[in-house]
């Protein structure tokens, strides 16, 4: 498992996603709630934390769901990108947060960025991140995360 502090990753996701206690449409039109949870991706176990319903959802429940989702996602990221564990903590957190936003499959499409990260070429990794459709769709988050990579 990784050596990153989950609390800083959780705080970053919370800041970048924001919180809504009711269903809303995300930027791509998906029904979403909590800290950017797609409604159709909430598992029965996760819904049980909210008495089996989707909304309203309070922050306490959303925090529990976020931790469950991150535990599973973190494992999936390291399975897909095993060498990532050798990268600096903040780089690992950025890749995991990107996977939180776009899925592991989405992150794996960042082949050049991942190759730059693997080679510890964080300047080019950061620059490459900013050339993506993802950066055009969510520019503020992309800039924040790319800046973290560049400073690694």
Automatic annotation (TrEMBL):
<keyword id="KW-0378">Hydrolase</keyword>
<dbReference type="Pfam" id="PF00959">
    <property type="entry name" value="Phage_lysozyme"/>
</dbReference>
<protein>
    <recommendedName>
        <fullName>Lysozyme</fullName>
        <ecNumber>3.2.1.17</ecNumber>
    </recommendedName>
</protein>
<dbReference type="InterPro" id="IPR001165">
    <property type="entry name" value="T4-type_lysozyme"/>
</dbReference>
<dbReference type="GO" id="GO:0003796">
    <property type="term" value="F:lysozyme activity"/>
</dbReference>
<comment type="similarity">
    <text>Belongs to the glycosyl hydrolase 24 family.</text>
</comment>
<dbReference type="GO" id="GO:0042742">
    <property type="term" value="P:defense response to bacterium"/>
</dbReference>
<dbReference type="GO" id="GO:0009253">
    <property type="term" value="P:peptidoglycan catabolic process"/>
</dbReference>
<keyword id="KW-0326">Glycosidase</keyword>
<keyword id="KW-0081">Bacteriolytic enzyme</keyword>
<dbReference type="InterPro" id="IPR002196">
    <property type="entry name" value="Glyco_hydro_24"/>
</dbReference>
<dbReference type="InterPro" id="IPR023346">
    <property type="entry name" value="Lysozyme-like_dom_sf"/>
</dbReference>
<keyword id="KW-0929">Antimicrobial</keyword>
<dbReference type="InterPro" id="IPR052619">
    <property type="entry name" value="Phage_lysozyme-like"/>
</dbReference>
<dbReference type="GO" id="GO:0031640">
    <property type="term" value="P:killing of cells of another organism"/>
</dbReference>
<dbReference type="InterPro" id="IPR023347">
    <property type="entry name" value="Lysozyme_dom_sf"/>
</dbReference>
<dbReference type="GO" id="GO:0016998">
    <property type="term" value="P:cell wall macromolecule catabolic process"/>
</dbReference>
